[in-house]
Amino acid sequence: MSAARDIVAGALCCIGTFFFLVGTTGLLRMPDVFTRLHPSTKCDTLGACSVIVGMAVYSGWSWELCKLVVIACFLLLSSATCGHAIGRSALRRNIPYWRRQGKETGDGNGA
Amino acid sequence: MKRVLSLFFIAALGVLLLYVVASMPPMGDPQTPTATHVIPRYLERAEEETHTENVITGVILNYRGYDTMGEVTVIFCALAAVLAVLGRERRGRIRGFVDRSPVPSSTIVRTMVRFMVPFIILFSVYTILHGEISPGGGFQGGAIIGGSMIIFTTVFGLYESSRRIPQKVRAPLEGSAVIVFFLVGALGLVGGGNFLTYAWPHAARGLQPALVTWLTVLVEVGIGLGGAMVLISILFAMIREEEEIALTA
Amino acid sequence: MPDKSTFSVIPLIVILLPWISLLAILAFPKKAERLRLWLCALGSLASFGLLFSLLPGILDGKTYTIKLASVVESLEMRLTVDTLGFYFALILAFLWMLATIYSISYIDHKHNRFFAFMAMCESFILGCAFSANMFTYFIFYEMMTFGSYPLIIHEETTIARRAGYKYLVYAVAAGTVLFFAIVAHYFWGNGELGFGSYGVLSLEFASRAALTTIFFTYLAGFGVKAAIMPLHGWVPDAHPAAPSPASALLSGVILKAGAFGIIRVCFNVFGTDLLRELGVYVVMAVLACITIVVASVFALTQDNLKRRLAYSSIGQVSYIILGLAMLAHDGALGGVMHLTHHALMKGCLFLCAGVILVKTGKKNISEMAGVGYQLPITMICFSVCALAMMGTPPSVGFITKWLLGSGALQASLPVYIIILLVSALLNAAYFLPIIYIAFFRWEGDEVEGHGETHRPKLVFGKEADHKLVVPIVILALLVVVVGIWSNVTGFPYSLVSRVVNVIFP
Amino acid sequence: MGAWRHFPIFMITLPLLGAVLMPFLGYLRERWVPYAALLPLAASTLLGFLLVGRIPAGDHLSYHLGGWEPPFGIEIRVDHVGLFLMLVVCAITLLALVYSRRYIEKEVSPGRRTAYYVLYLLMSGAMLGFTATGDIFNLFVFMEILALSSYALVAITGNRNAVRAAFKYVLMGAPSSIMVLLAVGFLYSVTGTLNMADLASRIAESGYTEVLVVSYILFVIGFGVKAALFPLHMWLPDAHSIAPSPISALLSGLLVEVCAFALVRITFSVFTRSATDLVGGTADAVGVAAAAAVLYGGIMAITQKDLKVMIAYSTVSHIGYIFLGITAFTAEGLTGAMYHMLDHGLAKACLFLCAGNFIYLKGYRRIEELRGAWRQMPWTCFAFALASISVIGIPPTAGFISKWYLILGNIRAGKWLYTIVLLSGSILAAVYCLRIIYYMFFQAGKEEAWEDASRDVPPGMLVPVWALSLGTLFFGVFSYLLIPSLLKASAYLL
Asked: Best interface-test mutation with C: which of D390, D407, D474, D486 has the largest number of C CBs within 10 A?
């Protein structure tokens, strides 16, 4: 039982860190704000949640579980809001889109 | 010429430091002077001597409380320096301020921030009060409060946030960390010890643990509040400066 | 020195009395100008009087001492009136008193500043005379140096400023060297800076090189004030630039402060035995001889009267140095006595030059034809002193020369006599023409064959303000009187011989 | 053991407490701030004077904060030398603060005045704490307060030049702080303790020679920058001349000296005699730098046209004096250095405040503009003259006494070259000081330059100036009040 729980927990944590890795790679490799927003928000949310779930499994029914749930809630809320805020302000500031072949001047309005 | 000289100087310094690090006692070795002289006593007896479970808190607030008093003064000094260079906003709250940030925030963000900030502050209170037994403490808690206000201010603007924490509140609280330290120190004198004695020699033996605990908490709260107010005041001063630039431009 | 050392506040009061004038300047309104000036003179007078009252005690072998302050045990500011110090103080207070009275009528602008600094300088230099140790001496000496600067530039002309600047440069450099000398003295003298009858330094505690260094730094430090030849540069500029009473004091007293310092160094710090042991006296003698001759030669070429007198002073002060360097009884006696003698003579000469300047506006000797008829009393006094400078008996100058000559024989170095003779000749060569021009030439003489030159009428009694003439006459009389009755109690011989007899028994 | 044991900690903490209370007072009644700021400093000064004579000769007062014995808690350690310097700090900060009120009204905009007093009090308290501490980490902490507040005070007028000067100061000051921190860390890593006395005993038996030497070098460079030792002085002329005059007085008269004193403590209380062999080479290098400072500072001061810059360069020169006294490693030399701290503090503060008077009344900064200043501002000019006499070292001022001991100490150490350097330094000082005195008193300026005759600055600004300049005279004449105990204390340190 304990071993199985550990394995599941470890697997979840590994998945979480994998997503973190992917997200960070994306953040570094993507060419502009909007595309970078994509890996960073999504992968981070997913990665963090996976890790939290892993830890929840690891801790079992305990006081820590409550804390983890609260953390997860806040994480989901804040991460999404951040992504929204960054994307929106980038849009409002007319930050250009990225185009292939170095054509980096988009129409800027996103519409 | 200057560049070459400074390059040379930096290179020399780097070599010197590398050389020293190479000849320093090995890291983590239990036989190093650091591990054998003062540290063992802290680790072994801090709990009974300072009545705090967290040894680090015991060291920074009790054994070396005076240093910490200096450090909170440094933080306060940073605020005074910022105010000296940027100037403080006029007495009372800032009037006629309109949110000039280039991106008016959306309803989602506003709602979320309004929802989150109380929780953040709750968490900071937890951090401050728990500093005595677990990692955390006044500095961290204060930083968290400050952070929450930074979020609030970026979203709602200076007017809203300075309405909530006006100068009237900040001015007396900015130095609360130092004041509390001084108070505790002076009380130590009253209690028959030296400055910054938490366990008053004149107090009954059984009363001492509680005394130390409560005084420690008091100090933590003072540091937390002071740190938070300093951060907020610095933030306001800097935003105000930006405003002035924006107005003149 | 005798052990009869008594505590007394009199030295301090003597020093502080001149400050009355500062109080007078502060206390009385500007309208009471005369009153203020006379109070200034009164301070000087009182100082001299009080000093004179110490004479019986001094002759009795007493010393009066008072401690002012101390840094540590061995480093104190103490005033002690011993025989030598008393001797110096007496002449300087006397000359200062006369010069102050003279100044009342002579100085015509910025009285306050001039009199205030006169008083301060007197106070400081009295402090020098009374110093019980080198530390105190240096403190007063430095204050005196800077206090005398405003006297030199009093006229505020470009020449005066330049002279003052030169003076400061020399003084600062000298002060620094002197400072080093005293610190070194303190170090190698085992913290003993006081004056002993036979010197306090010895080869027991310090190496030969160290002592020689101390001696030469002392010599260089004091030598600037005493105008030993390579260090004399400020003197010929400062004297003509300063107002005449100030130049009289410069030459009569301030130069002597340097010479007095050297006397202290030779007698009371090193002692004659140590000087002989180290052999440094030879250098001193050679420098003095060079100065005596070269300064006189320079004096010959000067047309400006005060400048000529200044060069003469340079030469004459070196008589003192030469006397010391002989390391013989009579030489020392002559040298130290010359301190007073020269002060009397040169003080009088400068004051005369001042009267000539005020009354005729003439600075240069070549313009002075017939001055003797315009200002007969002044020029007679001038002539008396000039003759005394050459060493004509019966005058103080003769006594100096006689004693120095005798000292040279005691030291079995007759070459000094030749120097003295050459000096006397040169003195005659630059003084006699002045007298000749003043009395036996009159205006228009230079232009030959242009009709009758008229001899000016001789006018007595109306030549100048009494405050100008009386000091001159007193000095000229003393030049003769002291020359004749030199062993009267209270005159230089009675005091100096007491000191010298101790050192050269 | 009476209540006086607690005095030093209150001397240190009262100004700090005052500083943190000032913003609130500034919010309530801004007009009261200049007066209220005087209170903590006056209290510190009073406590300091009450301490005089209580510390037994040749001993020190050791105060354990929180009651923890030294290697575990922090110790305040006040010996005679330390107390002496603390008193100097108290007195000069108090006087310069009295001076500040009128001056600041003119130079600093209203929104910043409270910050000025806050920083001022922080700086004073930090200097006191810095001098009194017996713990090297605590030393660093107070150095940080000191440094931060001084950076800000330099920039407080907010004009472009001030900010630039402050930035230059920060650029040099921040790395120097890091170096001190590194040095503290190194020392801790090889000894396991931070207490000075404990360090002294453990350094002697510690085997890590290289680390010790390097940490000493870092201390020297770190404090050397703060104390403006010659090649590291670049920030000083700008910062000291551009800061408001009372701040220049504090920076020049106290800050550099307190930092020099820190090096004294590090050298004599931490590395001590047994370790002097270790650091001997570094000390020699410091000596050379100090000698260069004396000459360089003096020559640069002569060439300056701006009065405050000239005084600042004179400080560079005089820091050299102090360091030459320290590196002589003799009781006399150290006494001279300590006495020079007093003398230089008083005289330099006075000179800067006088320069402030000229700026306040006339806006004159250039030396040439001072021609004939005597006619309008006689009191200021006399005070200036007295202080410059002390800077030159002419008796009977305190400068003479300190120079005496500096030279005596160097002769005893057999350092002839340094003796000559010290002497030439005073000649240079004479050149640059006498020039100004000459302009003030003996040269007539333009008539209209000083038209309203006999109107000097208000008494609130004259009294501090005169107190300082008379102080130089007082300590010159009554040097026996201090010198014997300083000699004893120096011998004790050695």
From this structure: D407
